[in-house]
Specification:
The protein is an alpha/beta fold. The protein is about 40% helix and about 15% strand. About 0% of the residues have low confidence.
């Protein structure tokens, strides 16, 4: 016997109430962890779902979208709280009422990003024409600008030509998933992904890069991934390898390799020939890299732990190229990790800049005369980017900036330094500098 209409309504209402309760619990867990200890929201949310296995895939997706709607619009939502600073410092845990209001308001502000069916589960005001319109109605204010989405101190650390307005217009929206073709043809990979229900669009110029805007399928379970046909890597990150442009048979050092996304890209560009020494202070990250290298079939990657301080004497002038993807503020990936916007500390910029300069000085002797040093960050801040590279060049007159083709357009980057932003493509923000070591200069 089919349930009556009244019964179906009761079941639906109970389901919605359950989802709302679970979303409140998830948001509470994330806000407390991010505010109290600075833990990444994505890891906290993943742990929450592992601890709550009764959440189905649809529930997890809805809850994730609601939580991230709150995080992306926190600059607006914090103005609806009595003491946002206390909550951000981990000194005040949000109440059940505050959690419900944050979820409803976050969903309202991000209305354009939610299917109508999902929005119906939460009582919402009538959405305005734009995010700022909705924010104005929510706060009862006129004349708001997108700068409400970031702390006031951020602006003064951006380069004068940084496209702040265009960046902020992108900040409140989710970037697409970008992948990099590892093997096989781009058309064949796009067709294989289409068969899995995904639309993969190759970038107009960076042909190995494909965007996926409807990534409802777990990419890591696809045969094309497990078989080594592609890697998940943001377009801006791929620009670093393209700026490095290693040649087949060369010897490279990836000094801060992490889990090895850029290492694998270098190996692919070198056609599995030559040698790449991948180092990192975190040995567990190198184990991830070794697994990924085996899956992709790369045999030209060596991994070594390194403390980031001094190179071994036998490594002096032994590399055709050195890549330093330096530790940084990670401000360039705030679109993917919006929790970092309000947990970031202005004072940390100088701290990371000091670490970066130490690493650059440590690896410089490893570059052969005539070799290349690539410096990169996932930051938007001048102190970590242009100013860092310029200071290095002053300390090391044996290096000079070298022009290179813009990875996304092919146009000449005369200065040898490039800031990629979401205004260039729907991607993260990254900085890269290319520097050549002169022959006969000490």
């Amino acid at each position: 016997m089919r349930p009556s209409s009244q019964t179906r309504t009761m079941i639906s209402e109970a389901k919605q109430a359950s989802q709302m309760k679970m979303a409140c619990n998830a948001l509470h867990t994330v806000l407390c962890a991010v505010s109290g200890s600075g833990k990444p929201a994505d890891r906290v949310l993943s742990a929450f779902f592992r601890d709550n296995p009764r959440c189905g895939s649809r529930d997890r997706r809805l809850i994730s979208e609601l939580v991230y709607a709150v995080l992306r619009t926190w600059g607006i939502l914090r103005q609806t709280l009595e003491n946002p600073e206390a909550m951000e410092a981990g000194e005040h845990a949000p109440s059940a009422r505050e959690l419900q209001e944050l979820l409803a308001r976050g969903a309202y502000l991000a209305a354009a990003d939610f299917p109508a069916g999902r929005l119906a589960r939460i009582p919402l005001p009538h959405p305005g024409a734009s995010l700022l319109d909705r924010a104005g109605k929510l706060l009862g204010k006129n004349g708001l600008t997108e700068e409400i989405l970031i702390p006031a101190w951020v602006k003064k650390h951006l380069a004068p030509d940084f496209p702040l307005q265009k960046y902020l217009e992108k900040l409140a929206s989710r970037p697409p998933m970008w992948i990099r073709r590892e093997s096989g043809g781009t058309a064949e990979l796009a067709a294989e992904l289409a068969a899995a229900g995904l639309t993969a669009v190759p970038h107009e110029y960076a042909r190995d890069a494909l965007s996926i805007t409807d990534a409802a399928v777990n990419l890591y379970t696809l045969p094309a991934y497990t078989g080594g046909s592609f890697e998940v890597q943001d377009l801006a990150s791929q620009c670093i390898g393209l700026a490095a442009a290693p040649s087949t048979g060369e010897r490279w050092l990836d000094a801060c390799a992490g889990a090895g996304g850029k290492t694998l890209q270098l190996a692919s560009m070198m056609k599995n020939k030559g040698t790449i020494v991948a180092s990192d202070i975190r040995e567990y990250k190198l184990e991830d890299l070794r697994k990924r290298a085996r899956r992709a079939g790369f045999s030209n990657i060596q991994t070594r732990a390194w403390d980031g301080k001094t190179l071994r004497p036998q490594l002096r002038e032994s590399f055709d190229g050195v890549l330093v993807d330096a530790p940084c503020s990670c401000s360039g990936v705030w679109r993917r990790n919006p929790d970092g916007i309000w947990s970031a500390r202005e004072s940390a910029i100088a701290e990371t800049a000091a670490i970066q300069s130490g690493i650059l000085d440590a690896v410089a002797p490893g570059v052969k005369a005539g070799g290349v040093l690539i410096y990169a960050t996932c930051s938007m801040f001048m102190e970590e980017n242009e100013l860092q590279a310029e200071a290095f060049l002053k300390r090391h007159p044996e290096f000079v900036p070298e022009r290179f083709p813009h990875p996304l357009t092919g146009e000449d980057v005369v200065s040898g330094m490039l800031q990629i932003t979401p205004a260039d493509a729907d991607c993260d923000a990254m900085f890269v500098a290319r520097m050549r070591k002169l022959k006969g200069v000490r």
